Amino acid sequence: MPITLYSVSDGPPSLAVQQCLKYLGIDYTLVNVDFGLGEHMTEDFAKKNPQKEIPVLDDNGFQLGESNAILQYLADKYAKDDTLYPNDLKERALVNHRLCFNLSTYYRYISEHVMAPIFFDYKRTPLSLKKTYIALDNFNTYLQLTGTKYAATNNITIADFQLVTATMCLEAIDFDISNYSLVQNWYSTYKSEYPELWQLVQAGMKEISAFQKNPPDLSHMTHPIHPVRKN
Ligand SMILES: N[C@@H](CCC(=O)N[C@@H](CS)C(=O)NCC(=O)O)C(=O)O
């Protein structure tokens, strides 16, 4: 059953899905979509994902966007046991909660502060910084409430894949997270327990880090939403 992932090499949602595929030992074809060339904004790509966003999974013709939905699908379909996405009602609810928290708040605020100003004509502001601190504080509190090694349980789950890639964006710009000690411990634990997954994420982090120092020239791009930086 051929699986293809349309992915962007430094995209946190794409890297979350790549971790899941690697963890599950699934063979797949990786198609790198060139964000800078706007390959995801073509009508052809819109047939795969009408939202024109990356990643998109194609599992033998079944096409799915939204990285959280992709992670849930992969874990439900391919995991040999339920550690990655627990069957227990409350554990699964916590995983789902963390996925929603990442989408609505954690990655959203981090991405507004870190990623948007790298790629488009946005500024880091006191408000975007404050929102990033709020996101970190929320996550730290969730780790305190569950007292677990990982974000939802004592095992890595699909929620960690997303939260790790969001946190990696902070590391890419040398953002100090030491005031959020449980987040910092969780992030270090992940790196030491899953070095092969971290390697994947780290490659994306290095790209973001390089772009932070030398922002990409996207002045040729016409974007439907984001203001393009004119050089
Ligand atoms: N909610 C989506 C978001 C995916 C997303 O934002 N992807 C970025 C790349 S990292 C993208 O495709 N952005 C489209 C654009 O800015 O034109 C998901 O989790 O899959």
Walkthrough of the structure:
It is a single chain. With 231 residues, the chain is α+β, with helices and mostly antiparallel strands. It has 2 domains: 3-78, Glutaredoxin, CATH 3.40.30; 89-213, Up-down Bundle (Glutathione S-transferase Yfyf (Class Pi), Chain A, domain 2), CATH 1.20.1050. 56% of the residues lie in helices and 7% in strands. It has 8 helices and 4 strands. Strands 2-1-3-4 form a 4-stranded mixed beta sheet. The mean pLDDT is 97. The site of glutathione has 10 residues, from loops.
Write the layout of secondary structure elements.
Elements: E1 3-7, H1 12-23, E2 29-32, H2 43-48, E3 56-59, E4 62-64, H3 67-78, H4 89-119, H5 126-146, H6 158-172, H7 181-193, H8 195-213
This protein binds glutathione.
Family: Belongs to the GST superfamily.
Domain GST N-terminal: 1-82
GO molecular function: catalytic activity
- Give the distinct bound molecules: glutathione
Kindly name the structural category.
alpha+beta
Number of strands: 4
The CATH class assignment of the largest domain is Mainly Alpha
Quaternary state of this entry equals single chain
The CATH level-2 architecture of the largest domain is identified as: Up-down Bundle
**Weakly predicted, low-confidence segments:** none
- Strand share of the residues? 5-15%
- How would you spell out the order of helices and strands? EHEHEEHHHHHH
